[in-house]
Write a structure and sequence with these properties.
Strand content: 25-35%
Number of strands: 5
Shape: globular
Helix content: 25-40%
Mean pLDDT: 87
Oligomer: single chain
Distance between the termini: 33 Å
Number of helices: 3
Largest sheet: 5 strands, mixed
Radius of gyration: 13 Å
Amino acid sequence: MPSGKKVILDFIANIPDNKITDMPNGNGSNPLHSTDDLRLDMQGMTSSNPQKHNLQVQINAETKHKSLKTQSSSRLNTSVAAVLALPGTPPSDIRNGLKDSYNQSKIIDL
């Protein structure tokens, strides 16, 4: 079984372009892409001017991956990566931001 880190980075690398272009500008959680272990959620728009998409990679509660399950049960929040992205941000920039967020354990403002 691959490590949790590999599963997360592979998930980010394989987010289809069409899932992170032309995203809705509404508020509320909106799952954009998911697997059995992880999902990419848009948690609405920021209140800043200009507004940005709040995108988060989260561990699914029903994951069977042992290290992801352990990681999610030891956290109050299941987010492992997050970016704030302007509408129209290229998909490659969003994926790179999510990788940086995961590796640096912080929200990346694109």
